[in-house]
Structure formats: structure tokens, C-alpha cells
């Protein structure tokens, strides 16, 4: 098998893939233990080294340990979650209501990753056609932080059920700054074997082979294509987990 001399060692590769496969959206397993300064610093540094279109680096990081601020954010969540409950009926509504969808006060630290939509000025290399690339770039910073957190044994939960305008007011954000990701961070009692929504029967992971197209939308890979064979062989394989 061809290996680039730029590739990581087998142990390093397994560490990366383990972080990917074992990353979880944590809501219920937070411990009160504080995150050491050096660990938090490494997480923020990892996020800051995400790729960004035109090297605009549109992210900022609001470290939130104030209980008062977090209570105001929790109030925001509870209002929006009550509205979201109205989207469901019957058993599905009961199932939704039973889900714990935030750890705002349970986690020892909250972090808001924002996107400054004016960063880099009116003309940013690579952003002429797709202006949302600043948002996409900031999402990559979130993912970098999330994977680094898993490697450090830190759980992360993304609270998406928030009114973003109210959140911006609570955090005092300028009008050009969008609160892209409100995250709960902390050590955890465990990382669940499966994503919590999957374990509770809300949704299952879609088969990868149904999501891969060839040279056009809904054009399947031919059976003789090497990737088609790989997808079939690995369709029922569980991601490796190291105890």
C-alpha cells in the first residue's frame, strides 16, 4: 500500500480517528471539575489554527464563567425550547420533552465562538462569490476545538436552541459579530458509546454508501469501482474504540 512520507504514524492516525469517532455532543455527563488553564489554552489554540477562506480568521472566543450570564442564556434556551416543543405531537413530543438538550449550568465553563462578518474588510480573497465562507470557516474552528477537547478528555455540548439576537444582546456583541456556536465545556463522567440521540432512538446514522454519488447527483458508484467495494465491506463495521 502506498504511504506518503508526510503521513502520520499508525499510532498518531489512530489517535486522530479515535477523536473523530468518539466525539460526542455532551449534555448530561458534565463533572464540576474546572478545566486547567493550560488545557483551555490548548483548545483555543487548536480552534485558532482552523483553516479560513482568505485567511480571514473571523472567529473570536468568549469565555463565560459568570453564573449570572449563564442564567440569562439558560432563560433564552428555555423560552426557545418551549417554542420548539410545539413542533411535535403525541409520542414524539413526549420523547422530545424528555431529552436534555443543554448543560449551561451543569458544565463548569461556557464558550461562545463568534463570527465577525466584517473581519478582513469589504474584500476578502476567495469570498467574492460565496459570502457565507466566513461562517463556514468559523464552523471549522468549532470542529477543531471539539476534536482537541475529545483528545483532552473534555466534553463539549453545542446549545443550538437559542434566539441569536437575544444572545448577542446578553453578550454585548457588535452588530457585525454573529454568535455562531454556544458551547458547554467540561470533564465528563463518561463519553457515551453512541450519540445520545441515536441511543434514544431519535435518529440513526445514515449509511455512508447511500450518501456517496459519482460524477453527479444520485449517480451511484458502479459495482466495480474500488470505493464501492470498500463501502460494502465497511457498511456494518463499528468505528474502532479504545478502552
Number of helices in the DSSP assignment: 8
Mean pLDDT: 94
Distance between the termini: 28 Å
Shape: globular
Report the biggest beta sheet as strand number plus sense, adding barrel if it closes: 4 strands, antiparallel
Q: How much strand?
A: 5-15%
Pairing-aware structural class of the strands and helices?
A: alpha+beta
Over all CA atoms, what is the radius of gyration? 20 Å
Percent in helix? 25-40%
Read across the widest sheet, the strand sequence of neighbours is 1-2-4-3
Q: Which residues form runs of ≥5 with pLDDT under 50?
A: none
**What string gives the helices and strands in order?**
HHEHHEHEHEHH
Report the count of strand segments: 4
Give a written overview of the molecule:
The longest helix has 19 residues, at 67-85. The chain has a four-stranded antiparallel β-sheet, with helices on both faces. It is α+β, with helices and mostly antiparallel strands and 243 residues long. The chain has helices spanning 10-22, 37-48, 67-85, 90-98, 133-151, 164-171, 196-199, 226-234, and strands at 59-64, 109-116, 154-159, 177-187. Helix 1 (10-22) packs across helix 5, helix 2 (37-48) runs antiparallel to helix 5 and helix 3 (67-85) packs antiparallel against helix 6. It is built from eight helices and four strands, in the order ααβααβαβαβαα. It starts with 9 loop residues before the first helix and ends in a 9-residue tail after the last helix. The model has no long low-confidence stretch (mean pLDDT 94). It is 38% helix and 13% strand.
